[in-house]
Design the sequence.
């Protein structure tokens, strides 16, 4: 009887442990992941840019020396940590806070060659600074605009090279 | 002997109470934060205050993630409160005309606002629209007519 009890207890513990890992992330939290995914899908449709993942961006950076990588985080965050080779052009978190000066600045940073490949990123998937930045570039005629949704958090989590203080 | 023992117990209790107070309250504040908060007029919300989910003027917050914690968006009031994972306010953003910071109101010209903030000892930092003083970073959101349409006050790490 005692043996059965131990067996049942062990099976229950293993089942619970297995359940905890089900979902998009091993840590769970499916609800915020779904929320961020929905927003991302809507933003991509509205923004007219292309998404790029961590591996593809890493490959692109290695192959294409000519691309412009724009970090849209605030200057103080950019100084702290950024993807190696990125330039800073801070963008607000929401449309309502996006200032004309920030719009002008990202266009200035992108330069005059509108055929150049530009990758825009910010903090993490649900952060919308990169969306606003990428959308502005598309609206102003830039033909090859990518948004890297994982942002600095995804890049760092993947153990890829960063620079900063 | 018994009196001495009681004093020792009392000392330990006082030591823990002071320690707990410092950890939960005063240690989170910065020097001069009360003075800074007294100049922030955003629906009685202040830096370092604990997270309060209660509605402001009947508007409930919408919670969104942030790189170092989370944020409460009060969409109908045009204000955003940012929290670190310690559940304390570290940034306040407003675009509400009923609010003000450091005597600067929405609609003031950028030049006026800059003058007011410089008079308080803030210096331009990072970008032409950001001003820092000690642990505090103040940002002006300026429109195409060079008028202030929003402001952000935040605690620098």
Sequence:
């Amino acid at each position: 009887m005692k043996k059965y009890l131990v067996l049942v207890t062990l099976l229950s513990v293993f089942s619970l442990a297995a359940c905890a890992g089900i979902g998009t992330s091993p840590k769970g939290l499916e609800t915020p992941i779904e929320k961020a995914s929905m927003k991302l899908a809507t933003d991509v449709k509205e923004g007219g840019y292309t998404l790029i993942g961590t591996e593809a961006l890493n490959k692109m950076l290695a192959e294409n020396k000519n691309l412009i990588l724009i970090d849209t985080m605030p200057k103080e965050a950019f100084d702290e940590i950024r993807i190696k080779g990125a330039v800073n052009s801070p963008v607000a978190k929401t449309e309502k806070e996006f200032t004309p000066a920030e719009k002008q600045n990202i266009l200035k940073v992108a330069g005059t060659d509108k055929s150049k490949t530009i990758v825009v990123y910010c903090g993490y998937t649900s952060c919308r600074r990169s969306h606003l930045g990428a959308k502005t570039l598309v609206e102003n005629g830039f033909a090859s605009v990518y948004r890297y949704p994982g942002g600095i958090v995804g890049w760092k989590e993947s153990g890829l090279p960063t620079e900063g203080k | 002997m018994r009196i001495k023992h009681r004093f020792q117990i009392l000392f330990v209790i006082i030591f823990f109470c002071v320690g707990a107070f410092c950890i939960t309250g005063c240690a989170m504040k910065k020097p001069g934060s009360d003075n800074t908060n007294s100049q922030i007029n955003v629906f009685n919300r202040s830096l370092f205050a604990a997270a309060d989910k209660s509605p402001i003027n009947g508007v409930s917050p919408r919670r969104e993630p942030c790189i170092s914690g989370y944020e409460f968006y009060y969409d109908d009031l045009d204000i955003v409160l940012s929290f670190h994972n310690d559940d304390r306010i570290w940034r306040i953003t407003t675009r509400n005309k009923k609010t003000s910071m450091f005597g600067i109101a929405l609609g003031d010209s950028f030049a006026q606002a800059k003058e007011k903030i410089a008079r308080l000892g803030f210096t331009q930092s990072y970008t032409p629209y950001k001003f820092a003083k000690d642990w505090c970073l103040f940002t002006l959101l300026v429109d195409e007519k060079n008028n202030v349409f929003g402001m952000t006050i935040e605690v620098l790490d």
Notes: Chain A has one domain: 48-163. The beta strands of chain A are 50-51, 68-71, 82-83, 87-88, 117-121, 144-148, 162-163. The domain at 48-163 of chain A is CATH 3.40.250.10 (Oxidized Rhodanese; domain 1).
